[in-house]
C-alpha cells in the first residue's frame, strides 16, 4: 500500500493523540508501591529479626522475660511489658543497656557485635512493641507470637537450643581481668573510694553510707552473697565507668581516667568481694 494511502486509512492516525495517557503498566505500579511502603515495613521487620536473634532467648518472644532460658540466668530478664518498665524505660536508657549491658546482671553489651543503627532499631522495637505496647503487644493466651523469617534462630545466636533448657545458673568467672589490659592497684583506689564512694556504699561496703538513707534505689551492698557471687572485675569496672541508669550511681568515665577506674574497682574487689588479708584496707563487714 502506498504511503499516502496508509495515512488516509481510517485505522491509522497521521497525528497521534498526545492528550491520551497510556495506561500504567502493572509492574510499574507495583514498583512505585514498593518504593512508598516497603522501606518502613522492611526496617520494622529487620528490627523484629534482630530482637528474635539476639534478645528473645532471654527476654522472650513477647518481651515479658518468660523465656525458657530465664531459669538458667543469674538474674531474671527484664519484663518490658510491666508497669515498672513503662515508668522507667526511655529510648535512651534502652540504647545504653543494649550498648553496654547491665553490670551485675546477665545482660551483656552488644556494641562489639551490632552497629549503632542496629542498636537504635532494636531500642525502637523494644520501646514501641513491648514497653509502650504493653499487654496489647501480647497475643491471646496460649498462642505464640508470629516471628519474621530469619536465617539464624534467636537461640542459636546464643549457643543453640540447648541454651534454653533449664539448668543451674552458671557461676561468674571471678578471675577475669580488667579490659584493655589494665591492672588495678587497690592501695591507690582506697583513697578515691573513701572520698567519693563511701558516702553512699559505706566504708565497709555494705551500702549503708551516710547518704544511703536518702537514696532510692539503695546503694549496692558489696558484701552480701549476691554481690560476691556476681561482681567480678569486669562488672565492677563497667559499673564505675558507665554508672547505673535510673540510680544515683554516676558514670565516672567522664571525670577520671581508666586507670583510676581500675584502681577503685580493684579496691572494691579485694576489700569487699573477695577480701584479701593483709592488703592494708579496712575489713569487710559481714
UniProtKB/TrEMBL annotation:
The keyword Transport applies. Residues 134-161 are annotated as: Disordered. The keyword Electron transport applies. Keywords: Electron transport, Heme, Iron, Metal-binding, Transport. Residues 42-130, 184-272 form the Cytochrome c domain. GO terms for molecular function: electron transfer activity; heme binding; iron ion binding. SUPFAM superfamilies: Cytochrome c (SSF46626). Signal peptide: none annotated. This is Cytochrome c class I.
